[in-house]
Amino acid sequence: QVRFAESGGGLVQPGGSLTLSCVVNRSLFAVLNVGWYRQAPGKERELIASSISGRTANYADSVKGRFTVSRDNTKNTVYLQMNNLKPEDTAVYYCQWTPARENYWGQGTQVTVSS
Q: Assign residue 84 a region: left if phi > 0, alpha if psi is -120 to 50, beta otherwise?
């Protein structure tokens, strides 16, 4: 079964940057459409960025211009570069297929933006 493992979260001040990693246990040529999701306290999980067919990236309006998704096929890894972080970006971040599939959620990685 395909598994996604997120890492790279942490505590960062507003305006700071973080890069999250999503390691997949299969070749990314077999996992073309990968999404980054997040769930803030008291809110539903939302899709914020996606890498489609290994070529196209899409972003939610809330992160557009600040977040960048990329992939390294040699490392089976999808990245989420997050710049100019805001307190409202505080959430647990997940990666998996897009559209999301049940039973593929990992443990996520916590991102906290606070001064």
A: left
Q: Considering only CA atoms, which of 108, 102, 115 is closest in space to residue 48?
A: 108
State pLDDT tens for residues 12-68: 999 999 999 999 998 888 878 999 999 999 999 999 999 998 789 999 999 999 999
Q: Measured in Å, how far apart are the chain's first and last C-alpha atoms?
A: 40
* Tally: H helices and E strands in the chain: 0, 10
If you write DSSP's letter for every residue of 67-86 in order, what string do you get?
EEEEEETTTTEEEEEE-S--
Residues 6+ apart with CB under 8 A from 12: 18, 85, 111, 112, 113
Nearest to 49 by CA among 107, 108, 3, 95: 95
Residue 86: CB partners within 8 Å, gap ≥ 6?
14, 113
Amino acid at 12: V
